[in-house]
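During the reporting period, our protein records have gained a structure token line. One record among many is quoted in full directly below:
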Amino acid sequence: MSTPRTLAVVSAGLSNPSSTRLLADRLTGATARELETLGHDVTVETIELRDHAHAVMDAMLTGFPTGDLATAIEHLVAADGVIAVTPLFTTTYSGLFKSFVDILDKDALGGMPVLLGATGGTARHSLAVDYSMRPLFTYLHADVLSTAVFAATDDWAGAGDQVNPLPRRIERAGKELAERVHVRQNVGPADPFASTPSFLDMLGGA
């Protein structure tokens, strides 16, 4: 009997179409195929940050995400696993990507399996995944996968899978995330009021 699993995919590409979204889709496909092999029905919730850019800025100013952005965050924190992909600018994640992470509750991704991906012009930027993205999600107590995927411009023009390592790395990362999601029991986001006594409890001794 198949069991449902949900993937939340955060894509911070600024253009349309974008190589960032292309990488996100490839990672999602690899993960979904492996989850189906493991006996799961897979639902994918894609969060295209470009579509929420103004709402993200409003949330930073007000402290409260609203509308479609609030719905997207609900899908994110309720997912069984997350794929997060950003373009790299000046050797780090984009401002839009960081702003989105900044409006999340600090406990929203606690224990969440997260696969990191990034795109950039040249392979010189690939280390940014480990020295900027990974610490960011580690700070949020996410379960960050050891395998991350960086795609430079030249990777999309490679001479086939036998020469270009990108497809093999995508498959490896997708399998790793699927295995982590497969064994995870998603309990959903923590209730911030769970430990608050009820009015009747407070009157119990009266």
